[in-house]
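Below: protein 1.
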Amino acid sequence: MNTFRTLTCALLLAATLPAWAAVTREDAAATAQKATGGRVLSVEQADAGGRPVWRVKVVTERGDVLVILVDVATGRIQ
């Protein structure tokens, strides 16, 4: 019974932590590149409104630098 309680507590704790691995850095870069057609310059972990996101900096063919936020849990652009 003690092992069950420990496992349950560990699972509950894990569920409350940000899931940085749900959408990988590479997935976020690919999403931003596909959406903009540009070249990815950098990908960093960030927080937007209390939610974990990937902050992807992209340069377009016209030379514009864009920052795309990709939700870590869903992979959607915010």
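Below: protein 2.
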Amino acid sequence: MKRFSEELIKIVEETSLLFDEISQEDWNYRSAPGKWSRKEILGHLIDSAANNHQRFVRVQFEDNPAITYEQNKWVSTEDFNNASTDNLITLWRSYNKHLAYIISVIPKDKFTNQCNIGKEEPVTLEWLFKDYVKHLGHHINQIIT
């Protein structure tokens, strides 16, 4: 999974530069009532990293662990709009660099191990890597546009 690890590092490095160009006002702006601000989307990406960290590690030695989370409740509970933007960016950057490292050291024979993430059917570890990068890209686009 070296390819996914390298892709994740590239995304983090390129996106970090783009995040520096966003004003504090824009980080807190909500496009509509009930929609997440850019800062809340970034917080959601941190939550996603935390949950996928569990998945990437535990699926290697547990049989089909169930690792799900209520994303809206997490974002609401964590009050990201009042958190330091710089701290959130630093945490997001560091967490993803660590995930890239974890992905790079997972033995290939573990890629087909499965995890229950709340979908109808369990997913493989390889599917989790691909989905994580896709999910990250989707939300980064929301933040930078």
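Helices lie at 2-19, 24-28, 38-58, 71-78, 85-105, 125-144.
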